[in-house]
Amino acid sequence: VTSRSSFPPIKLLVVDAHVEERRALAKILAPIGCTIVGASSAIDALRHLLDEEFALAIVDMQIPELSGIDLVALVRSRERTAALPILLMTARGADDTQLRRGYRAGAADWLVKPFVAEVVRAKVVVFVQLERQRRMIAQQAERAREVERVELALASERRYRGLAESLPNIIWTARADGEIDYVNRRWFEYTGLDSARGGSWADALYRDDREAALATWRDAVMAGEPRDIECRLVGADGAARWHLCRAVPERSAGGSIVGWFGSFTDIDDERRALASLGEFKGTLDAELDAVMIFAPGDGRLLYANRGTLVLLGYARGELESLRASDVLADIDAAALHELLAPLRDGTRTKLTIETTFRRHDDREIPVEVSLQLISIDGARLVAIARDITDRLRQRRERELLYREAVDAIRARDEFLSVASHELRTPLSALQLQLEMLLHPPRRDPNATVSPEQLRHKLAIAARQVDRLARLIGELLDVSRITAGRLRLERDEADLAAIVRGVVERLADEAERARSPIEVRARGPVTGVWDRARLAQVAANLLSNACRFGAGKPIEVTVEQDGAIARLVVADHGIGIARGDIERIFSRYEQAVAPRAYGGLGLGLYIVRGIVEAHGGTIRVDSELGAGSRFVIELPRTPSSEDHAGHAPDAGSGEEASPHR
Amino acid sequence: MLATHPTPDPAKKLLLIVEDDPDLALVTADVLDAAGYDTTIAGDGLAALDRLRGGARPAVILLDMSMPVLDGFGFRAEQARSPEFAAIPVIAVTADGDARRKARAISADGYLVKPVSIDTLLAEVARVGGEP
Questions:
Q1: In the prediction, which pLDDT does B60 show?
Q2: With DSSP H G I counted as helix, E B as strand and the rest as coil, what are the percentages for chain B, rounded to 5?
Q3: Disulfide check for B103: which of A183, A198, B3, B92 has CB 3.0–4.6 Å away?
Q4: CB atoms inside a 10 Å sphere around CB A204
Q5: A 539-558 residues with CB below 8 A of B?
Q6: Is the pLDDT of residue A164 over 70?
């Protein structure tokens, strides 16, 4: 019999009230090589049986507290000990009834006293062998299970590694202390790092993200809790891509952390997409343009940005049932369908139209709309609309400005033509007249000129010079007024007296025009004015009245209205069409056809310039055919803002006031 | 001044001066009279047409382009419509630098630019209408 040192010793329990008997039996059993545990009573035996494993119990029939048979029954009845083989001991001569009871209670066999050592050993050895075999089998089963477990673990590890290696994600594991002990192939592929060359895995972290990522990782290890870390990993190509690093602790059955499992997932595209989506949406919403996406079939609005709400004046919820035809004021569904034909057949990729949108409040706004068919889960009509109210207004303004510029150029050219004519006509007369005096034509070599004829010719020549001087004066005045350099020689003056003087001077002209001039002035109307310039104003208005007065009487009124002096020149002539009233005060303009009445057409421009230089106003009430009424109002004393500031005696206004 | 020419002299070539400025019209007539022409003056295009319809057949018409009532352009249009005097040669008289173009525009036979000197005036009249 051999015992394997790997096994704990096989124990035999000997239950006998007498210590000599127990010793005797132990002596007999010693060669078997088992540990003999003695018990002196049933209670003692039960205590050993509960605490220890025995290969066999040898129980005397006569023990205290319980009979041997009762103990056998009790042992059998307990689950833990039910399988324990029991040998009962009895004295020689025991009756059959007792033996049968013993077997019935579960005893395996009987040992009869006094013992025959070989018989006892032979009987006990059977049970020891049995225990040895049981133990062997148990051990083998355990070994087999262990092998299987190892095999399974290895297989799982292989599978796991294989899986890890083949995953597109980077997989890593770390020890409980956070030291990385495994990274899969993908890591090396991605980072271009060499497992043989070593180096820290942290080298692959993008510099800017490294510190934060490592801090989070240390924190995860410290707290023993899973963490997600977003950081950029530098690839073999040097490009840094965003990764989501997920670290999860692995726990033992007991709950303690035995390691870490982790992964890096490339989220760069998603992140970029999110960013650009955010940017896109942000762009669309930040865009003042209205971006709308319609279903091309029924024209249902599928998407609208914030610009649309602003442009169309809808609230977000109100757009849902909207159709393209609700928005387009001038284009119905059929027209839209036709309009989109070039997009559908691919001859055009984009259409830009100017049209009108109808807002929620029914107001119509001009828009420029670019239309494109694109494919976002099915064909979609993308419309980007921009309010072009401002652009149209600017265009109109530009056109107006252009027309005005063209008109101004035309007016200037016309003026130059008129001015040229007006200047050259007297010049021509003057030249011919003087040449006639100096070098008369050859056919009349001996013709003499009487002193009277000479005086007459010189008078005509002088008249041309006057005309030229007056025209040149007008041109210079216009130039001064335009440049804002009209200087006033202000002095105490009586407007009524000035007007009377002018009327006197124009008596001939008025007579020729057959328009008598009536002056209505109650008394002096004084102010601090440029006397000569106001005379020019009165002469101009009265001269116009004669020219356009159609031979009807002309009334001139001079009156004082508090701090204001008023001059009114009214005729009953041809009048001015309503549409021309604006123009008559501008440069180069005559409401009537050029040349019909002669003159440069600068008169009223100069009049207005002089009046305004005095801080006054001029207006005209007129109707075509009903005559004209020019009303000039002048402040009697200059205000500091007037052009009068240029006048050398600007301060005399205050002195003048008491003299009224 | 007109009094010096109470009746047209049939031996002299008649010139029709169409000019709205009386001073210039008179002095022009003076010059041409002195040169040996007979002259008559019309103050605008309409007056000139009246003169022609009244039977006047000048050798040359001196036509100011810029006149009230009926200007040079209007006069030419009317003149062209009358077979009796459509062929009378015309010298356009203008004040601006565009005289040549204006003259061509009305198919004038000659042109003069104000201010006109006596020599130029006589030369152009002689060229278009012949010596007096």
A1: 95
A2: 40, 20, 40
A3: B92
A4: 25
A5: none
A6: no
The tens digit of pLDDT for each residue in A345-372 reads 888 888 888 899 998 888 998 888 888 8
Torsions phi, psi of A519, nearest 5? -100, 125
Burial (CB count within 10 angstroms: exposed 0-12, middle 13-18, buried 19+), residue A146: exposed
Between chain A and chain B, how many beta carbons pairs sit less than 8 Å apart?
94
Instruction: Confirm if A48 and A6 have CB atoms less than 8 A apart.
Output: no
Q: Which residues contact A132 (CB under 8 A, 6 or more apart)?
A: A3, A7, A10
Task: Express as a percent the part of chain A with pLDDT over 90.
Answer: 13
**Nearest by Cα to A114 from A91, A96, A135, A132:** A91
pLDDT of residue A73: 84
Best mutation target, B114, B116, B117, to test chain A (most A CBs within 10 A): B114
Could you tell me which of B43, B74, B60 has the C-alpha nearest to residue B132?
B60
Please tell me which residue of chain A has the smallest CA distance to B66: A595
Q: Which value does ipTM take for this structure?
A: 0.86
Minimal CA–CA distance to A564: which of A531, A623, A611, A625? A611
Residues of chain A with Cβ-Cβ distance to B94 below 8 Å are: 421
What residues pair up with A374 in beta bridges, in sequence order?
A380
Residue of B nearest to A416 (CA): B96
**The model's pTM:** 0.47
Query: What is d(CA A56, CA A131) in angstroms, rounded to the nearest whole number?
Result: 9
pLDDT in tens, A412-444: 777 777 778 888 888 999 999 888 888 777 655
* B27 → closest Cβ in A417, A432, A598: A432
